[in-house]
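User: Could you go from structure to sequence for me? I need the amino acid at each position, not a summary. Structure tokens:
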């Protein structure tokens, strides 16, 4: 009887898997291509910019606390030879794993919660299909997609062996195993979240907060591993699904025990997800929704108030992220000065600026990270308009006296306000942490930190304008906005660190609008550049609005 019951719960999984794979085909191909390219870009860049004798200097760059926070610790021991494979993996693995986690969050919520909201699963349930069939087919799809990502990246790394012998087959297989197991862990975690939350938006938000939480605790654990902080907190890296796979050390130890642990975690989380799915009703979440008020608040009478209602939780979540980012980087300011001054190499890399401390010069490099993260909420607000259109909600809205121009302008106003608020939250969080850990910090430093990040606002507005243009002129290609932001991160932050003073490759930094912003106080502020960037952002916004007003609604 038990076997018959289990079979009925999973009945139709194979047929549903074919349907899920068909819907995910386009998204998966894009992710596979991007992750494969990202995997090989780092090593190729290293081989183009550094000869083998210069790799030791690059290793020292990777040991900067900011780089450890961003990319993970360097596992090379004293006396070990640095190779293109080892440092290329160190440079790209953590960033790629973060993207793999995000890919799986979107995949699972799209095929579970999103399908429930659309009513598709209700129709499927009327057929001879088990109640767990959709979840099982979704997780099987995640297994296939992660296996393909792992296979493609492994083959790409093996192909690099033709350029340098350090790219061993064993290292490539180990690197690919990290992709596969981390993907499964976050697919299973998201499957649990999908049973708890009652909406796809809530599931996405909660899952992304979990990803951010694991990323942040890994930072402190990796600081301990690299020797920047107390070694007693190394365990934080081991309990994070984004920190544990780094212990596999591709091209160094090629250890597989971290991946075995991750696989067990994925299986356990998947089992929990199935158990929870059996207990909940279709369209409901196990976390009960709060009872609504008897009367809607007065601000919902306007579209401006409705936008706030739709974005409130996400904006609060991103405000918390900005606080965490500021506090995380601020926590190392007390030790970064002596760390840099004790090394001739780092002293040359972070050259002193008259009137400013070593820590303040170091912060100038970090500010682009704060700006890139602060840009995300503004883009989310603009792209939310596309989501509302795709789901048909905007069509209902426009049957009322509200005009299209008012709708898009309200979203734009929130996006511009968010850009200022988020950057200031980061600056204040950094300053408050510096008050605790960095002697000599005073009120004047708050203005300095604020100025250092506020000059990035024109670049954020340019990205906001680009997002608005996509919503207006190319609504089905809005994913390009995130792709361009990713390129901006790689070209600007990592480019400034890795390219150094290489004049032949400085143009790479200028690919992104963030690359045109000076690193104050290391570099002087050019008002003309900021004005031009702001003007470009305004022009892109105007073109986006004009396109949105002219075209027909594009409902999914």
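Assistant: Here is the amino acid at each position, in order:
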């Amino acid at each position: 009887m038990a076997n018959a019951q289990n079979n009925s719960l999973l009945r139709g999984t194979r047929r549903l898997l074919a349907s899920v794979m068909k819907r995910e085909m386009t998204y998966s191909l894009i992710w596979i291509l991007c992750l494969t390219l990202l995997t090989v870009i780092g090593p190729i860049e290293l081989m183009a910019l550094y000869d083998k004798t210069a790799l030791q200097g690059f290793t020292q760059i990777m040991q900067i606390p900011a780089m450890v926070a961003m990319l993970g610790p360097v596992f090379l021991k004293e006396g070990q030879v640095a190779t293109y494979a080892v440092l290329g993996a160190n440079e790209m693995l953590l960033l790629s794993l973060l993207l793999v986690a995000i890919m799986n969050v979107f995949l699972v919520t799209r095929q579970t919660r999103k399908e429930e909201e659309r009513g598709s699963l209700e129709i499927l349930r009327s057929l001879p299909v088990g109640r767990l069939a959709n979840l099982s087919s979704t997780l099987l799809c995640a297994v296939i997609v992660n296996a393909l990502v792992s296979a493609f990246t492994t083959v790409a790394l093996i192909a690099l062996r033709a350029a340098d012998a350090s790219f061993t087959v064993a290292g490539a297989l180990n690197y690919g195993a990290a992709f596969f197991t981390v993907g499964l862990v976050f697919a299973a975690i998201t499957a649990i979240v999908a049973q708890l939350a009652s909406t796809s938006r809530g599931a996405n938000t909660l899952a992304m907060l979990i990803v951010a939480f694991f990323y942040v605790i890994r930072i402190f654990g990796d600081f301990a591993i690299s020797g920047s902080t107390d070694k007693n907190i190394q365990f934080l890296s081991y309990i994070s699904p984004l920190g544990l796979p780094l212990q596999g050390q591709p091209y160094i130890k090629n250890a597989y025990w971290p991946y075995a642990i991750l696989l067990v975690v994925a299986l356990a989380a998947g089992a929990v997800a199935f158990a929870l799915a059996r207990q909940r009703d279709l369209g409901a979440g196990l976390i009960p929704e709060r009872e609504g008020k008897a009367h809607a608040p007065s601000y919902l009478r306007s579209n401006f108030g409705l936008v706030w209602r739709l974005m409130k939780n996400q904006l609060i979540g991103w405000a918390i992220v900005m606080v965490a980012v500021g506090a995380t980087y601020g926590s190392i300011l007390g030790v970064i000065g002596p760390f840099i001054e004790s090394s001739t190499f780092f002293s040359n890399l972070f050259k002193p600026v008259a009137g400013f401390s070593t820590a303040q010069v170091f912060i100038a490099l970090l500010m682009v990270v704060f700006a890139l993260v602060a840009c995300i909420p503004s883009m989310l607000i603009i792209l939310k308009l596309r989501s509302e259109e795709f789901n048909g909600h905007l069509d209902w809205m426009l049957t009322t006296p509200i005009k299209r121009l008012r709708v898009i302008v309200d979203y734009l106003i929130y996006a511009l306000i968010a850009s200022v608020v988020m950057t200031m939250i980061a600056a204040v969080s950094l300053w408050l942490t510096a008050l605790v850990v960095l002697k000599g910090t005073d009120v004047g430093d708050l203005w300095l930190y604020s100025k250092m990040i506020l000059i990035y606002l024109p670049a954020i507005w340019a990205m906001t304008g680009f997002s608005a243009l996509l919503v207006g002129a190319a609504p089905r290609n809005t994913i390009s906005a995130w792709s361009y932001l990713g390129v901006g991160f790689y070209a600007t932050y990592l480019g400034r660190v890795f390219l150094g003073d290489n004049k032949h490759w400085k143009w790479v930094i200028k690919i992104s609008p963030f690359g045109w912003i000076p690193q104050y106080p290391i570099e002087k502020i050019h008002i003309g550049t900021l004005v031009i960037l702001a003007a470009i952002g305004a022009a892109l916004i105007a073109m986006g609005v004009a396109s949105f007003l002219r075209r027909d609604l594009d409902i999914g």
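One structural detail worth keeping in mind: Residues 13-49 form the longest helix (37 residues).
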